Amino acid sequence: MTTQTAHEAPPAARRAPIVPSYVEDAWWTPSDDSRTTDVLDANTGEPVARFGSQGLDLAAMVAHARGTGQEELGKLTLHERALKLKELAMFLNERRQQLYEVSFGTGATKIDSMVDIDGGIGVLFTFSSKGRRELPNSNVVLDGPAEPLSKDGSFVGTHVYTRIPGVAAQINAFNFPVWGMLEKFAPAFIAGVPTIVKPATPTGHLTEACVRLMVDSGILPAGSLQLISGSARELLDVMDYRDMLSFTGSASTANSLKSHPNVIDGGVRFTAETDSLNAAILGPDAEPGTPEFDAFVKAVVTEMTVKAGQKCTAIRRTIVPKGREQAVVDAVSARIAQRVVVGDPRGEGTTMGALASLDQLRDVRGAVEAMLAAGGELAYGTLDAPVVRTAGGDDAVVPAGAFMSPLVLTWDDVDAEAVHSQEAFGPVTSVLGYEDVNDAVRLAARGAGSLVATVCTNDPETARALTVGIAGHHGRVHILNRETARSSTGHGSPVPHLVHGGPGRAGGGEELGGIRSVKHHMQRTALQGSPNLLTAVTGVWHAGADRVIAGSEAFGADPSNTHPFRKSLAELRVGDAFASDLRRVDLEDILAFAETTGDTFYAHTDAKAAEANPFFPGQVAHGYLLVSWAAGLFVEPAPGPVLANYGLENLRFITPVAAGDSVRVTLTAKKITPRVTDEYGEVAWDAVLHNQDGEIVANYDVLTLVEKEDTTYKNWA
């Protein structure tokens, strides 16, 4: 990625309005005589905005986030915050056309804006859904089972996630002013951590327009979102170990931020996504005329032209079998000539817009000139100002616009340093030939760490060899063939479910990845203590903690206690339990189950063969017979607040049960998760089957849906 510099200020009479910051829940604008940076329409060169932050109190912003922001977000559970993300996504979705109008001035076409704006809104929807499905409705996330730390079980340990107590600051690149903000904001918000956004100046007015909508929605708690429009060079000076900084931009800027004393010594959590010389590898089997060859060419052209190639995930190096370079160049060139119309996105028929600024145009042209001087040859396109489609639909050269022709370079020396180290952050790709699969892996690795690579092949062995060979150098591998050509989200499209980031040159950071990214904004802490106190802290019952047991007095229950299946969520508590009586298992039961189900595995039906099996003491009961009987032992059959059993988790069979043995079950309310939007919630029950000697036969979790209030039983009665 390249760093943007300020334009020279246009005459005062033509000066655009100053873009405000959002500070301590109010809009703030510097004085009009402050030093400002001007932003021009990327297509016409007309002034559209000015940025300045002189006089902005960054320390007050951080303090407000740590104080008001943390307090207000902490009043909500993980599920409640996730639900607010859905509300926010719906609000923005209805108003996204307002953002499109601003986006056109950044050089983005309608499709580019969809990737940025609709993609960002989609991230909110996805994280809202995953947050409510995969996280507890609380503010403590249990991580893994408890570890016994004493022989008698009185001292145990586990891990939990809780939100970091500071602010999540984000410094973003110019190419995705909406998506880049929302993909960082969403997981931080669910975690309960307030955000300070610092967008790149060339497109920061689009970020400001989105933040304004978010604020106007009234959905966000006070202090949960603030915006810096302009410079924020001193931001790290006022951050400490409680805080997190996520950066997207150039490697040089990332290295400068990483060397800040508050990162090195002060403990500020820092993650970066930086330069990336991504590759696409055409498999040896993907010859011209195959679906793979066509899909490969389409992917290369798409990545060259979407956002005018200004994507950290764009294909910079097109790696193809030696001898097939010209065929690929010809096919890519033909597709560009047929399908790509460069121009103002507001013009009819435009498919590729301008670069974000004239500074960006100079940077990209300079990078290409350096690559040509280092041995690259221009196989398609021109460095001259192209004829472009104007907003009025005419074709002309527009000197004030940041327009550039798509360029394809070839290299006689595929190991030239420049092609593996110089990033032209625009509509530029280089075609390189490889000798064999191992050579393709070697060339891809020359990028010294990348965000993504595409492997295009229909041969399973080639797919395996290339993927395994390059995976350690990439954050994501996109495998493309005829089966995914239509359904794939594409080489350059990170999805919120999967990790976005990469090693080495790509910055070594990690974003997205589903709930992983929520946990990036949380502290993993080891807990040690008694089962009772760990239960109290986590909200999840731990073995050995106190229980209120109904059922059989012979196995520790008080018969006067109410069966937990008769309790709604309003009455049910973690630790409420039921203990059954024993039920004898006879050979006739085992054989009947085998005949009814068709499971006639010899250990259940053939005495001689079962005796020869080293795992079984003769004929034994089916595990699923025992689980079925367990349900019969613990179920309270009358209608009541338990609405449905929707699954089992973590089922393990421990001790075989032979004919003549007996089994009993103890069921304990382990975790209770009310749903914010429904009249019921989930309850996970710890189920343990014992035999007549007290040995554990099986253990698992039973999952049920339970009403918040017991209306079912009352209506039935």
UniProtKB/TrEMBL annotation:
Domain named Aldehyde dehydrogenase: residues: 28-487
Extent of the signal sequence: none
SUPFAM superfamilies: ALDH-like (SSF53720), Thioesterase/thiol ester dehydrase-isomerase (SSF54637)
Domain MaoC-like positions: 583-672
Pfam families attached to this UniProt entry: Aldedh (PF00171), MaoC_dehydratas (PF01575)
Any one GO molecular-function label of the UniProt entry: oxidoreductase activity, acting on the aldehyde or oxo group of donors, NAD or NADP as acceptor
InterPro entries: Ald_DH/histidinol_DH, Ald_DH_C, Ald_DH_N, Aldehyde_DH_dom, HotDog_dom_sf, MaoC-like_dom, PaaN-DH
Keywords, in A-Z order: Hydrolase, Oxidoreductase
Family: Belongs to the aldehyde dehydrogenase family.
Descriptive protein name: Oxepin-CoA hydrolase/3-oxo-5,6-dehydrosuberyl-CoA semialdehyde dehydrogenase
